[in-house]
């Protein structure tokens, strides 16, 4: 969705329709640039939404309407979604001051039109641009939590590639650097992807181990799926603190 601060509450007026600015692309999907080097922009209508029964809901008035083609505004869109009690006499603000919605436990999503609209399922469950691009090519995107690199096996793959890269002789030649970088990335073993190593750290932290103890345990018990019950005694015997 577009910048939240620009979404109008009421229908657009003729000649001032609410549109979103996007970058223009050529037939190959590449950006189109101006002679000054900037990306060419254009304004388009926002994609439609869906009602609770999955029936499509256009965010712009249909052909034949007195305001055909104009943006309906948040109040009208919410009214169509059976939130009429918040439109008209009991109308809500377009947005809370400074977009700091507080809500309350009884009705956490009805403090303003924007908060109500953006918490509707069809607004929440929207694919990101990355997900949409990958889905178009039959690829699935998996977003991992922002954990420490020990718990993210993709980070471990990157670390493995850097370790392979630093084994190469020092060079200042661009071709050598590029060749070595590509070779290091291709050397990452795809069969394991370090997922087991990440599981070792997760199990160690769940047992209350600190980072130093977790690293020692992950190395010592690399062939185990989980740590043994004797892990705390083993740490004490090995003087690992």
Q: What do you see in this structure?
A:
The chain has helices at 74-80, 113-118, 121-124, 129-136, 153-165, 174-186, 195-206, 211-220, 231-237; strands spanning 20-23, 41-44, 49-50, 56-57. The chain has 241 residues and is mainly α. It has 2 domains: 1-129, no CATH class; 144-241, no CATH class. Strands 1-2 form a two-stranded antiparallel ribbon. Helix 5 (153-165) packs across helix 6 (174-186) and helix 7 packs across helix 8 (211-220). The radius of gyration is 27 Å and the shape is flat. The model is unreliable at 1-5 (pLDDT under 50).
Outline the fold blueprint.
Layout: E1 20-23, E2 41-44, E3 49-50, E4 56-57, H1 74-80, H2 113-118, H3 121-124, H4 129-136, H5 153-165, H6 174-186, H7 195-206, H8 211-220, H9 231-237
Antiparallel strand pairs: 1-2, 3-4
Helix pairs in contact: 5-6, 7-8
GO molecular function: nucleic acid binding
InterPro entries: RNaseH_sf (IPR036397)
Helix content: 25-40%
Strand content: under 5%
Rg over CA atoms, rounded to whole Å, is 27 Å
The largest beta-sheet arranges its strands as 1-2
- Which stretches are poorly predicted, pLDDT < 50 over at least 5 residues? 1-5
Secondary-structure-based class equals mainly alpha
SSE run: EEEEHHHHHHHHH
What does the average pLDDT come to?
81
GO molecular function: nucleic acid binding
InterPro entries: RNaseH_sf
């Amino acid at each position: 969705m577009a910048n939240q601060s620009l979404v109008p509450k009421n229908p657009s007026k003729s000649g001032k329709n609410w549109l979103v600015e996007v970058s223009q692309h050529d037939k190959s999907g590449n950006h189109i640039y101006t002679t000054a080097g900037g990306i060419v922009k254009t304004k388009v209508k926002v994609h439609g939404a869906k009602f609770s029964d999955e029936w499509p809901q256009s965010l712009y008035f249909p052909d034949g309407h007195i305001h055909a083609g104009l943006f309906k505004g948040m109040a009208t869109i919410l009214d169509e979604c059976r939130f009429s009690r918040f439109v008209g006499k009991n109308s809500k603000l377009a947005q809370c001051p400074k977009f700091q919605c507080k809500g309350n436990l009884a009705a956490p999503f009805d403090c303003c039109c924007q908060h109500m609209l953006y918490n509707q399922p069809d607004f929440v469950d929207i694919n990101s641009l990355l997900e949409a691009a990958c889905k178009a090519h039959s690829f699935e995107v998996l977003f991992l939590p922002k954990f420490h690199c020990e718990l993210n096996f993709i980070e471990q793959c990157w670390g493995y590639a850097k370790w392979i890269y630093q084994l190469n002789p020092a060079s200042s030649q661009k071709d050598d650097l590029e060749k070595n970088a590509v070779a290091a990335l291709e050397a990452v073993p795809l069969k394991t992807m370090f997922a087991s190593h990440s599981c070792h750290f997760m199990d160690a932290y769940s047992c209350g181990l600190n980072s130093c103890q977790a690293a020692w345990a992950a190395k010592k018990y690399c062939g185990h799926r989980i740590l043994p019950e004797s892990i705390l005694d083993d740490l004490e015997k090995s003087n690992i603190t």
